[in-house]
């Protein structure tokens, strides 16, 4: 496994891959890797000949007061995990490599779905994500790119921009990896105290409760979701949202249709997100 | 020369070109071609093995009340001109091919330089341009793309987005082609009456006057430009702007520096633009 830190190095390394007509699978990450990321790499290995993982903590997707500075940079441990998972190449550029010296004037904006849910409490976040993913897509020029379903809204934004901007890249969503208690793996779990970690599993519990209520035939979705919010608040969460959307993030009009329940809540200073896809009855 | 009207057709046609490691030069146009476009094709032929010209009247770069509907569609005449110029492939997609069936949520925005000059009087225009050029770049995946310097601001916007979004595409600006009277060739010249066409040459005359004033050592640039605006108005133009900028569209701080004089003015209902690059003394 090789590690490239410049665009020139990346392109030199990928050039023989392209000439050999091998397919390139791309897993963009911010590092501080866990088994959720590794599941993406394994999925990419199934689809593609060569797997490139980028490790780049992207400043433009962090808002003021968010954790850009303290976001863990753990390249050595990440490299070990990736080598074990069969990753072929790490691309770990500097901010200067990605954003250059001249002021950046260009942003990629995805309307509507980027302004809902997490977009409401994190203004500019998905513009930062969409812009850096567009840059990385153009740098790596992969055949397929792999994203975790934990960031369901991010995946929806990226699917949309890929189609809208006519990228010839397959976007593959990979199911959430959970720990033995059901907590969705996340780099931000590392910020939780052991007590908070115990509480954190209530997010998934709440999503399962909502699912059960829906599957038991209750039709008042607003009431179901409000009970879920109240439950989370009773456990000490500050709830940002608990909402139902169609898989492509449109409003749900029928309590028995295919839907995703999405949650974001703060525990202390740590913001956690999770979701559960509920297959519709009709 | 072949003509493709679908993305699938384009990609099938370009696939053997890429496999043969031939370079692809791309000339995006809205059709209704004239010798200014042909100069782009000839330049592309010099740089690249295969030249693709797109013909696509892009709805999203026309504002309300602009000439999208009446913009001339002249594919047959265009094809003849392009064949004669040595173009290898025309890509003439439908609006549906470029914008798809689903609502488009994604736009590419280039701040600052896109909000100046033409951007002021044509809100959203450069977002439409930047978005469609990003789409076309991803469809054609050229090695180099060729744009006329007549649309100096457009060229600056595209240079910026290409760098900012990390496209591996060389952007080549091609000098303005003028008729024997100095009128910059433009599809919109076709809207002018023969009398207006006589008047229209005064735009270039004005640019030359400004150049002469600067080269004669006059230093009050504001006064020089105001005389130019007054002159155009006296000839029957409604002046949108006559301004000086650095070549990358920053404010000019020294009347002897490298600069571009840019003009936009309406004659009747036809909006004309032109510019003149004045090489600085220091």
Automatic annotation (TrEMBL), chains A, B:
<feature type="binding site">
    <location>
        <position position="61"/>
    </location>
    <ligand>
        <name>beta-alanine</name>
    </ligand>
</feature>
<comment type="similarity">
    <text>Belongs to the pantothenate synthetase family.</text>
</comment>
<dbReference type="InterPro" id="IPR003721">
    <property type="entry name" value="Pantoate_ligase"/>
</dbReference>
<dbReference type="InterPro" id="IPR014729">
    <property type="entry name" value="Rossmann-like_a/b/a_fold"/>
</dbReference>
<comment type="subunit">
    <text>Homodimer.</text>
</comment>
<dbReference type="GO" id="GO:0015940">
    <property type="term" value="P:pantothenate biosynthetic process"/>
</dbReference>
<feature type="binding site">
    <location>
        <position position="61"/>
    </location>
    <ligand>
        <name>(R)-pantoate</name>
    </ligand>
</feature>
<dbReference type="InterPro" id="IPR042176">
    <property type="entry name" value="Pantoate_ligase_C"/>
</dbReference>
<keyword id="KW-0547">Nucleotide-binding</keyword>
<keyword id="KW-0067">ATP-binding</keyword>
<feature type="binding site">
    <location>
        <position position="177"/>
    </location>
    <ligand>
        <name>ATP</name>
    </ligand>
</feature>
<feature type="binding site">
    <location>
        <position position="154"/>
    </location>
    <ligand>
        <name>(R)-pantoate</name>
    </ligand>
</feature>
<comment type="pathway">
    <text>Cofactor biosynthesis; (R)-pantothenate biosynthesis; (R)-pantothenate from (R)-pantoate and beta-alanine: step 1/1.</text>
</comment>
<dbReference type="Pfam" id="PF02569">
    <property type="entry name" value="Pantoate_ligase"/>
</dbReference>
<feature type="binding site">
    <location>
        <begin position="148"/>
        <end position="151"/>
    </location>
    <ligand>
        <name>ATP</name>
    </ligand>
</feature>
<feature type="active site" description="Proton donor">
    <location>
        <position position="37"/>
    </location>
</feature>
<keyword id="KW-0963">Cytoplasm</keyword>
<protein>
    <recommendedName>
        <fullName>Pantothenate synthetase</fullName>
        <ecNumber>6.3.2.1</ecNumber>
    </recommendedName>
</protein>
<comment type="function">
    <text>Catalyzes the condensation of pantoate with beta-alanine in an ATP-dependent reaction via a pantoyl-adenylate intermediate.</text>
</comment>
<feature type="binding site">
    <location>
        <begin position="185"/>
        <end position="188"/>
    </location>
    <ligand>
        <name>ATP</name>
    </ligand>
</feature>
<feature type="binding site">
    <location>
        <begin position="30"/>
        <end position="37"/>
    </location>
    <ligand>
        <name>ATP</name>
    </ligand>
</feature>
<keyword id="KW-0436">Ligase</keyword>
<dbReference type="GO" id="GO:0005829">
    <property type="term" value="C:cytosol"/>
</dbReference>
<dbReference type="GO" id="GO:0004592">
    <property type="term" value="F:pantoate-beta-alanine ligase activity"/>
</dbReference>
<dbReference type="GO" id="GO:0005524">
    <property type="term" value="F:ATP binding"/>
</dbReference>
<dbReference type="InterPro" id="IPR004821">
    <property type="entry name" value="Cyt_trans-like"/>
</dbReference>
<keyword id="KW-0566">Pantothenate biosynthesis</keyword>
